[in-house]
Amino acid sequence: MLAKLADDLPAGGAFLYEPKWDGFRAIVFRGDDDVYIQSRDLRPLDRYFPELHDVLLERLPAGCVVDGEIVIVTPHGLDFDALQLRLHPAASRVAKLARESPAAFVAFDLLALDGRDLRGLPQSERRALLERTLATAKPPIHLTPMTRDPALARDWLARFEGAGLDGVVVKPEQGKYEPGKRAMIKVKHARTAECVVAGFRWHKAGRNERVGSLLLGLYDEHGSLHHVGVTS
């Protein structure tokens, strides 16, 4: 389930508000004797975050599916660049990075429990079940904060930008989990910069036919170009 971008938090209604984490979206499938980590576009992530496998297997109950975000936390906030470095073909390089800057998993939705599909339940009920399931969670597994107070959500939006949080996600209390649909709202921090277009990525639906995103860069004081983000 995805989120549509909005300029501001909704003026009224029954919503759950959560921080928007600047990481890799991931869905964790906990089977009877193994665990599988998948990206939102159905790609396996296990090999890029080997340090999460055993801890997820140990601390999540069998038969559950958890939606969340993989992040890397530093003393200065979240480090998205460190996450991108994990997407490396060499297992030895990935293992070295996992030791030097271990990742964490932040859970924000529960899609199945004890083998039962929960996607048809209201968001508020899934949240309550997630809280019970992760009542004893400890690092590197975290339960994302949640509030029903829009004033607190607005405070998060203003206060935590420098820590790497990307904004606030707004979920209708009675909303069901709708895979692939933009059934949530996201309010992101506004950032502007004059960048150099240094490259592009093909669109996943039409490789070599459609451009999916542009790669942006900035020059430093020595004239070296550094990647700073993407836009689509």
Kindly describe this structure:
The chain is α+β, with helices and mostly antiparallel strands and 232 residues long. It has 2 domains: 2-188, DNA ligase/mRNA capping enzyme (D-amino Acid Aminotransferase, Chain A, domain 1, 2-Layer Sandwich), CATH 3.30.470; 196-231, no CATH class. 20% of the residues lie in helices and 37% in strands. Strands 3, 4, 5, 8, 9 and 10 form a 6-stranded mixed β-sheet that branches. The two termini are 19 Å apart. The mean pLDDT is 92.
Question: What can be said about this structure in brief?
Answer:
By secondary structure, this protein is an alpha+beta fold. The protein has five helices and 15 strands.
Briefly note the CATH topology name of the largest domain. D-amino Acid Aminotransferase, Chain A, domain 1
Query: What's the domain count?
Result: 2
Give the oligomeric state of the chains in this entry, treating copies of one chain as homo and distinct chains as hetero.
single chain
Overall pLDDT confidence: 92
The biggest sheet, with number of strands, parallel, antiparallel or mixed sense and barrel status, is: 6 strands, mixed
N/C terminus separation: 19 Å
CATH class of the largest domain: Alpha Beta
- With helices defined by DSSP (H or I, 4 residues minimum), what is the helix count? 5
> Any low-confidence stretches, pLDDT <50, length ≥5?
none
From the 3D coordinates, which CATH architecture of the largest domain would you assign?
2-Layer Sandwich
* Radius of gyration over C-alpha positions, nearest whole angstrom: 18 Å
Beta-strand content estimate: 35-45%
Q: What's the helical proportion of residues?
A: 10-25%
Number of strands: 15
Instruction: Estimate the global geometry from the Cα principal axes.
Output: globular
CATH superfamily of the largest domain: DNA ligase/mRNA capping enzyme
Q: Determine the structural class based on helices, strands and strand pairing.
A: alpha+beta
Order of helices and strands: EEEEHEEEHHEEHEHEEEEE
